[in-house]
Amino acid sequence: MDGWQYLVVLGVCVVVTVPLEFVLGARVYRRPRLLVATLAPVVVAFGAWDLFGYHRGDWWYSIRQTLGARLLGLPVEEWLFFLVVPVCALLTFEALGSRGGGRDR
Q: What is the residue extent of each domain of the chain?
């Protein structure tokens, strides 16, 4: 089970925040070009940062704590983190902003 923990946490983040799109009208998934434009710099910047640190030997990823699939040396779960967490944050921000009344849409 240890190898699935990272994915389970990411999955819980998605399950908790996806309803914000449909119930509270966050409109994150309904604007795919804006979403990609928002995610691209995050993935590039943090991916480069992690790759740099990993290849320098500053940190490592436990094979016990990941499933083992890697992309450019980083676990796939780490790449998914760079997508899932910002999307969850955007969903939360947009849902709360739409309820705050102060933001123009």
A: 2-8+21-95
